[in-house]
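Newbie here. two chains, one complex. Structure please?
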Amino acid sequence: MKKYMVTIIAAVLSVAVIGSYYVYGAMDKMPEYTLMTVSGDESLVEHLYIDGHYQARRKSEYFTLSLNGTEYQSERPWIWQEISRSRSWLRSMEDIQQLYRDERGFMRGKVETDGFYQDEHVIIYAKMSLSRNIRLHLETLNKATRDAEKFQLSIPAEPSQLYVHVADVQLVGDEVYIMAIYGYRDKTNEFWLYAVDPSAGTILRSEKLYVDAEADAQFRVYTDLLSDNQVTVPSDYVVFHTRQEQVGASGNKETPTSYVNRLFVYSYPSGSMVPLPEEWAHTEGEDWRFQLDGTILYRMISRDSEIVVVHYDLKTGSTGSIRVNAEDVGGDYFHSVELRNGMLYVLSLSSTGEENSVHVLDATNGEKRYEGEITVKGASQEPLLDLWLGGIMFLYD
Amino acid sequence: MRNFGKLLNYEMRRLRYVLAGLMGLTAFIQLGTFLWKTTGDVAIRQEQLARSNGAETFLPDMTFAELMNSLQGWFIPPVFLCIAVMVIYVFLIWYRDWFSRDTFIYRLLMLPAARRNIYLSKLSAILLSVFSLLAFQLVLIVVLRWLFHVIVPAEFREHSYFADALLTNQAWELLLPRNLWDFLFSYGLGTLGVIVVFTAILLERSYRGVGIFYGIGYVVLAFVALMWPFVFLGLSSFFYPSEVAAIGLFMAAVVAVVSLWLGFRLLHRKITV
């Protein structure tokens, strides 16, 4: 036995000490904070998370908290952190996550989320790539028959073309409409609409879409599409957002002297491009955020203690607005604001840092639908002051 | 099993002075700098307290975690020295048997037992030594923490977490991850590295001159096999991220099994006395 002493000591020391370290580590739990419902419909915040840092330890710890409690990043194995980080932008997309769960085979390798369309019968995926020509890849899946079809089409490209991207896909009648963005080296980006016959695998029509804000020597124009939280849903409309910048008359042409943002609504069925009323245009100093939610377009401005949300129905043209003050919801200032599924999600904080609450309001009429408080879970007396809260986010994975 | 135990014990006995030396040096440097720094900081505070007639000191209270952070520059070199010695020993554990005065490998190979025991005992000895050094470092931190409480009077002391003290030292943070899964993952990968190098050494010993290229080639091949799922499949490709991770783990298992099989085979068939 004495002969084996070195090995025995080494083995016992290793197992006992390293084992104790991890047992002790497992018991050394970080405090658990949670979103506790005060009133309202809890299902509205089922996927709501608030991220932040716990700062009472020497190194601040990143966490996300929700109705279910707190999850600290350091408590997750590294490999899981990497897996969730690798497609992190998809985690907040409800319909895409649902597609990943329901149609794992069809969704394989498809990560360009603007290229999806689905209704109760069909899922369509379109993707464009640029080599000498533009290659349009289209895939369809019939949900009832499980028939999948795919084909590729070639479209001529200009020599100065830098990139191509599918911005939206819709099914109008039997035709698949593909909205494409083309970027160029020597001119501003262009939007092209392609009508494709999916059964024949041919392009029926194509047209370049114009918004009433063209570039010239004095103006630069940037155009993009407003995104909807639900990227796959059928919609008759898309909303173009243009930023028209007046460039310096002489000298520095890089810095704009002023700019105007405008919105244009394009209707797929009618093919019309209609500018939104003048009050939807805005200039420097008006930091509006736009959000499309089905046929309702929202514009929102959020200041420390006030939020204004204006909504516009693209179908009917009806409009309205709400104004929310921090004192109305019982906080000192708004820390984070998000618009989603017709609801205004607000994280309101007190200036002492001891009262943090989440409120969900109907974005069209301001009616309060949910109220929750961030509290310490269990009997722990950890102060809320040790939290540095980031913002509201939605995760659906 | 008995033969394996005997061989492992034999390897550990050969390593005992190296281990004792590394542990002694680590303890000497870490304890010495700890005592020097702690007593110095306490003395400054006591002097300030005396000057202000017991009113207050102008320095913040001492925490064990902060002290460990400030001593990183002294604490990390012995840890790195231990790592360097163990890396060198991965090669030495084989070559010393061939190049020692009485070419000990011939006696080992003549033993009336399966030759894989030689391989496994050497591998186990390396792992046991690494874990012993790690355990010794942990014990030393506990001793230092106890000493901190003994040396620093309560009025100059503030509570800090043990985990925080470990996280403040970059070497400890790396060697002692907080998550058990991360520990198993990183030391599993380290073990795989040792197995691959052992096989490369046996390739070199089996084929001598040209064996050097076989050995290097094998290490490169193993590295490529381990990395290709992440480099070529990527984390946003045809495969889902969890599938890429699973393929990566599967490849690690394949490399481990192939390396062990090849190592055993070389030891059994190719290396002759």
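Moderator note: The interface with chain A takes residues 5, 8-9, 12-13, 16, 19, 65-66, 69, 128-129, 131-132, 134-136, 138-139, 160-164, 167-168, 176-183, 185, 235-242, 245 of chain B (CB under 8 Å). Residues 180-231 of chain B form the longest helix (52 residues). Thread marked as resolved.
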